[in-house]
Amino acid sequence: MKKILLLGSTGSIGLNTLEIVRSFPDEFKITGLSTNTNISLLTEQIKEFSPETVVVRDSSKSAELKKIIGEKCEVLSGNDGLIEISKHCDYDIIVTAVVGFTGLIPTIEAIKRKKRIALANKETLVVAGEVITELCKQYNVELLPVDSEHSAIFQCLNGEHKNEINKLILTASGGPFLNKNKNELAGVSIKDALTHPNWKMGNKITIDSATMMNKGLEVIEAYWLFKLPKEKIEVIIHPQSIIHSMVEFIDGSIKAQMSTPNMKLPILYALTYPNRYSYRSVRTDFKKINQLTFFEPDFDKFTCLKIAYEVIEEGGTAPCILNAANEIAVDKFLNGKINFIQIPEIIKDALDKVNNHKNATLETILESDFRTREYLNKKYL
Ligand code: MN
Question: Cα–Cα distance between 253 and 36 in angstroms, integer?
Answer without folding.
Answer: 45
